[in-house]
Amino acid sequence: MLRNLTLTLLLILCSLPVQAEGFITRLLNHPVPGGVAVVGLPEQSEAPRASYQGKPVLTIREDGERWIAIVGIDLKTKPGQQQLALANGGQIGFEVRSKRYEEQHITLRNKSQVNPAPAQLARIQRELDAQLAAYAEFSPRQPSNLLLDRPVPGALSSAFGLRRFFNGEERNPHSGLDFAAATGTPIKAPAAGKVILTGDYFFNGNTVFIDHGQGLISMFCHLSHIDVSLGDEVERGGLIGKVGATGRATGPHLHWNISLNGNRVDPAIFIGAFKP
Ligand SMILES: [Zn+2]
């Protein structure tokens, strides 16, 4: 009897915070390095403005009830307390938990893709600058959907955050999610947005950036063909391009990055495929 009562109380206590959270929070709140923190905001009539590390963050009203901030956490963040700054000068703390990422060892025959020739470095830097500028965009539009559609069918091949060693030398961790798909497979917009950058880059090959609104930005890489132009408005499910193996790729696949408030985060979170 007492045991049942204890169990019942425990169940009630455990279910309370969950009841206060909506679907978006339950889906997206994975506060780890390279993850997403959903932070409840004080009640107010107008959309609150909040920032993290000096950059504006995405805010929405969840289920027409409470305001929440959806915050991207950089992969290099150490576990512990972080602060979200409110426009009125207040702060709200949130906890970043730890997560261990796997290692991957890749052998590239083309050594210039491991250690690019000095002549390539200026090009690589120029391309990096353009891409960082695109990630820094913050347009006021609301994302059409936060539970994103998969841009291509097909198995997930390489996870976000993999620590990568090219010919034994550690390089940047994997900043996106890879889908195994054949050359020519159509790539569809996971949410509506505006094309803010396209290019043919040394590492990423044919690439498209789509601004979904409020700092939520997608990048699609290694395309065999780009079907959109700079400034185009793309509907949810609209054709962006086709899968390929351009740039530094060992075979045809789609590499998809998601950026939130300027930080690359795990796209698996947004398609309900996150593995803690
Ligand atoms: Zn990739």
Give a structural overview.
There is one protein chain. The protein is of the alpha+beta class and 276 residues long. The chain is 16% helix and 35% strand. It has helices spanning 2-20, 23-28, 118-135, and strands at 36-40, 50-52, 55-56, 58-62, 66-72, 80-86, 91-96, 103-106, 163-166, 169-170, 177-180, 186-188, 193-201, 205-213, 216-223, 225-226, 233-234, 239-242, 253-260, 263-265. The strands form five sheets. Strands 11, 13, 14, 15, 17, 19 and 20 form a seven-stranded antiparallel sheet that branches. Strands 3-2-6-7 form a four-stranded antiparallel sheet, with no helix packed on it. A three-stranded antiparallel sheet has the order 1-5-4. It is globular and about 55 Å long. Bound molecules: zinc ion.
Summarize the model shown:
By secondary structure, the chain is α+β, with helices and mostly antiparallel strands. The chain has helices at residues 2-20, 23-28, 118-135; strands at 36-40, 50-52, 55-56, 58-62, 66-72, 80-86, 91-96, 103-106, 163-166, 169-170, 177-180, 186-188, 193-201, 205-213, 216-223, 225-226, 233-234, 239-242, 253-260, 263-265. 33% of the residues are buried.
